[in-house]
């Protein structure tokens, strides 16, 4: 699930890569956001999930949540409270904006954040991934980040995690964008590295 359609790259570029192999759903959060007051957005997602399961042929062991910014916060909240219902989440430039009820179960986790994020500082994204480094039994890891104005990105595949619960972290030299370019942090739409990285992470999970 995603929080928006991804603009020039629908579903953050994943739909093009899926080639009709996945069901994509892009709900809008209640009250024009994902504040999740009193768990209302979690209940909303549960209702959507149950309807999809009832109406469509779904592999219930292969559900994934993906979101950027507020949507990333909601994907993190799902990781906290619904780890048994989702196989993995991808959190793009997120923070703890939608709460974290529970947050003690393992789930495969992809995190991505810009070192020059002027909306949600990268330290916020780092806090999210560190929770699941711990939950997933991974080695205590120093998450690497590129220097500012380096036009680089650095990916850390965290070691020692339980095999079914990998953790990957990508820090890029850029601001608050979901689909940064391969060699810079500007919005690159479908030419971003993000769709390929997230799709590879998700599809490796069987």
UniProtKB/TrEMBL annotation:
Keywords: Carbohydrate metabolism, Hydrolase, Polysaccharide degradation, Secreted, Signal, Xylan degradation. GO terms for cellular component: extracellular region. One of its GO terms (molecular function) is feruloyl esterase activity. It catalyses: feruloyl-polysaccharide + H2O = ferulate + polysaccharide. Involved in degradation of plant cell walls. Hydrolyzes the feruloyl-arabinose ester bond in arabinoxylans, and the feruloyl-galactose ester bond in pectin. Active against paranitrophenyl-acetate, methyl ferulate and wheat arabinoxylan. This is Feruloyl esterase C. Coiled coil: none annotated. It comes from the Eukaryota. InterPro entries: AB_hydrolase_fold (IPR029058), FaeB/C/D (IPR043595), PLipase/COase/thioEstase (IPR003140). It is found in: Secreted. Belongs to the faeC family. The keyword Hydrolase applies. Its EC number is 3.1.1.73. Its main location: secreted. One of its GO terms (biological process) is xylan catabolic process. It holds the Pfam family Abhydrolase_2. Transmembrane segments: none annotated. Residues 43-147 form the Phospholipase/carboxylesterase/thioesterase domain.
